[in-house]
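Good day; I would like, with your permission, to put a structural problem before you. What I wish to show you is a protein chain and, alongside it, a tokenised description of its three-dimensional fold. Please examine both parts with care and let me know of anything in them that strikes you as inconsistent. Thank you for your consideration; the sequence and its tokens are set out here:

***
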Amino acid sequence: MLNKASQPIARQGIDLPRRRAIQGVLALAAGAALPARSQADGPLRIGRADYRSPLSEIEELVLSHAFERLGIRHEFVRLPLLRLLEMANEGQLDGDIGRIRDVAERYANLRLVPTPICQADVAMYGRSPGFDKLSRADIASLRIGIVRGVFLLSKHTRAMNVVEAQNFESMAAMLAGGRIDAVAGIYLDMEVQIQSGNVPGLVRWPYPWASEPLHLLLHKRLAPLIPRLDATLQEMAASGLTKRYYGETLNRQQIPPLLPEPQART
């Protein structure tokens, strides 16, 4: 659930066709005020998370390599996640990294680059010593905390009893105070928080709760760039370079990979 200012129109009871129509009108109004952008205007300004995030670091590495191949100057801007999307949709930023495909459908002015930047895993953590032995159904029955603005987390906890937190620190406080039983987080980012000692005593469920590819979203005025950028990302993925960046980051942060989940017994 998003904060009131950022809440998608669909959550306010407006059906999809009407939402698209409203967004279309807003897009035309916004687009009229946004001139075409060229490299003479300065480097592309791409948004990323404003907290310590190994996943965002991987995304930066991949995109920097792709932009450099194309001779495109760029810089990354750190801001809160929901504000990044608003600014990219309004044209105040040129794009936003690390978003699932569903997000592009919510924002009329954003266009998805089809080839993923990397893969993200959702992981579950609890305080009970036996949390790692629980079944998926057991965990789904718990009160789960997530950080607001991470659409991957809200998507894969949608049918659960979810409590949203403004940031990781407030989510950790809710867990310590017993307001929630467990937390869902982006695996790499959660692990560095645990390594920092911010949440002692957490027990990780050893399997991915969910996994999805993450993409770059660009403002629609940059749509002509997408085919070239997508082709470059495809070449990087085919050469193994994208996967290498991911593996090197895991090794540098000393984060073990999650285990494949065993098939459920019948």
Summary: The mean pLDDT is 85. The chain has two domains: 9-29+41-118+214-253, 120-210. The beta strands are 44-49, 74-79, 95-99, 110-112, 118-126, 143-147, 161-165, 182-186, 203-204, 210-219. The CA atoms of residues 42 and 56 lie 23 Å apart.
